[in-house]
Write a structure and sequence with these properties.
about 220 residues, alpha/beta, TIM Barrel, 8 strands, about 35% helix, binds D-xylitol-5-phosphate, binds zinc ion, RibuloseP-bd_barrel, Ribul_P_3_epim-like, EC 5.1.3.1
Length: about 220
């Protein structure tokens, strides 16, 4: 069964604590927090203060996805804010190894993220040092986009590299995930599913999380 990481990008910000408690009690494993800078992606969302505010109200694994240019400058603030996992986009820095090392040295799990247009070969040099790889299944920047099926081959490729080299990183998927699109990803080796609009735009978010879990039993 896949682990579920609801993305609060699609939650109700005015009732954020209520929404977080709902998914936490409903069996979510992670809480996915999308940080956007208006440069790497067109939108702006929230920063380290937001993570810091959420930390005391939830025991969920805080899974912070940085869609920001030159993330290394912001890493100390997100580490201090209480993130459990921090993901950096390989396309956003000239120094991916250094960025991942800063995260690990801060005692936080390190994740590398690849866009749909980025090949797995671009991250093979760092696969031995990461705790999680995030394969974007849409182009980052917005919730509610359509899943790109051509990304599934990259999940399978990563899964094969994982086995061949004895790595034990999680493989996370993000974008357009629902109870149907998750199936091929899970079969290809995905272990964590981010879901934003599918979960939070529903009248019963917990039922949607369960649908993802049931589809990957
Ligand atoms: C997109 C973000 C996602 C987003 C997913 O740039 O990284 O985490 O919240 O939203 P859905 O699940 O609606 O595609
Ligand atoms: Zn995300």
């Amino acid at each position: 069964m896949i682990k579920v990481a609801p993305s609060i990008l699609s939650a109700d910000y005015v009732n954020l604590q209520r929404d977080i408690e709902k998914v936490e009690q409903g069996g979510a494993e992670y809480l996915h927090i999308d940080v956007m800078d208006g440069t790497f992606v067109p939108s702006i969302s929230y920063g380290p203060g937001f993570v810091k505010a959420i930390r005391p109200i939830s025991k969920l694994v805080l899974d912070v996805h940085l869609m920001v240019q030159q993330p290394e400058h912001l890493l100390p603030d997100f580490i201090e804010a209480g993130a459990d996992i921090i993901g950096v986009q390989v396309e956003a820095t000239a120094h991916i190894h250094r960025a991942l090392q800063i995260i690990k040295n801060g005692g936080v799990k390190a994740e590398v993220v690849i866009n749909p247009g980025t090949p797995v070969s671009q991250i093979t040099p760092v696969l031995g040092m990461v705790d999680q790889v995030l394969v974007m299944t849409v182009n980052p920047g917005f919730g509610g986009q359509k899943f790109l099926p051509e990304t599934v081959a990259k999940i399978a490729e990563l899964s094969q590299l994982k086995q061949a080299n004895g790595y034990n990183f999680d493989i996370e998927i993000d974008g357009g995930v629902n109870n149907e699109t998750v199936v091929a990803c899970y079969k290809a080796g995905a272990t964590v599913a981010v879901a934003g609009s599918y979960v939070f735009n529903a009248t019963d978010p917990v039922a949607k999380m369960n649908a993802i879990k049931t589809a990957t039993k």
